[in-house]
Amino acid sequence: MTQKKLFLILLISFLGQASAQEACGPISSTVVSNALRLSSFICEKKTTGSCEYEECLGKISGYSKPVLMMLPPSMTSVRVHFHGHKLNVFPEYDKNLKSMVKAFGLEDDICQSSEAVIFPESSGKCADYDLELKDAANFKRFFAGINSATGNHLKEMPVHVSAHSGGGRTVGRMLEAGVKVDEVTIFDGIYSEALKNQIKTWYKREDGQLNLHSIKGQTPANYVAVMVKELDLKLTETNPTIQQIPYKKLVGPRIRVLNRESGSDTAIKAHYDIVSQTWGPN
Questions:
Q1: Is the C-alpha dihedral spanning 89, 133, 193, 225 positive or negative?
Q2: Which of the chain's termini has less CB crowding within 10 Å, N or C?
Q3: For 185-234, how does the pLDDT look when each residue is reduced to its tens digit (9 = 90+)?
């Protein structure tokens, strides 16, 4: 065997091992942000406490509005979050994606996690989500745009989708379209029988984790209670206090339900605070 052939064999073997390691192991924020810069994203290094992350803003093919990507130091999964309606109640939530993340106080939770978090923006009452993310073809283009912008470095990672308020119906359409999703989290966002059934069908069909967070006495909590009853699961109840607010917590096979007391907060404040309080593991 010539030295040239031996070199080529060793090179191919090395590249194969590196590719497999990239597919299975953690990816650094630097690797992903470098790819995003090539797709004209503007990336900035940020610090929260002793944790450093990267914040990248730009656009992807397959979706017309800005997309914010927050990259913790090391990532093993991807989270796509759909925000709720812009209600003009608390301007800091509506101004832009960076302002919204700061208003919710999510920086530390994201930086300490191993999830690359992707926030697509929508105007008004989630009008752009409804227009551009409504069927299987739309979602295929959307995720293809994410993979292209990130250099396919996140492509093989588990996918966690979450939504707040009116963003929940986008998740419902995604699940109904058959997009492969490993975890679903809904923050006070089930406002219809149709959405309740879309989520329930996904839970029964797939083997992913389902997290349902709502506020006692509000419409989403009522739909969650009906869903839990229909699923007929054996759940364990505890009563944690999260950021000085009492919650009822139900845990069962691949499901976590958090039901918040409104306390002295107004319903609308509790509706926003539940995202801040329960974004990370609880």
A1: negative
A2: N
A3: 999 999 999 999 999 999 999 999 999 999 999 999 999 999 999 999 99
